[in-house]
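Fold it.
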Amino acid sequence: MDDETQSGDVYDKVNKWRSSVEAFLEKIPGLGGYIERENRRSADKLVRDAVAFRAEELVGRISEIQTVLVSEGQYEYLDDIERAVTKMRIFVDSVRTASYGYSSFFDNVQINEPELDQLYQYDMELMQGLDGMVSAIDNVNLSVGTDGLPASIRNLTARAQSLVDAFNNRQHLLTGL
């Protein structure tokens, strides 16, 4: 028997065992809901990791604009664009280090399905906010060397602040429980 066939057999056995264990555990009152909440918590963490990763990519794009401004001799805009970078770094750090909807049976704060649904909605809104950042970054790139550069940088900074504010609202949901 080759390795691929053996690994396929093992995989099938593990899946059958897992399914039977999960079916057994779901028969225990309250445990099925607990397992579902754990799955939602894991999904929440995955979504936030994706948000943070994408935001880090955007920080890199903004840093590239700083390099272009230096090469173009437009030093007067470096402090302004650095404010946007700083806000985005604060956002990334906040997203990466935030609680991800976990609570055990013994925690003072219990996060249940409705709250997890709200957290998921906040995270999806953050992804949409990142789409807005992409547009703002593109606009700054197009504005380098034009009179529209200061306004495009202000817009970029405002969008970065909006992301920070939106994430803070998410955290208020957790602390308000």
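The chain is about 80% helix and 0% strand.
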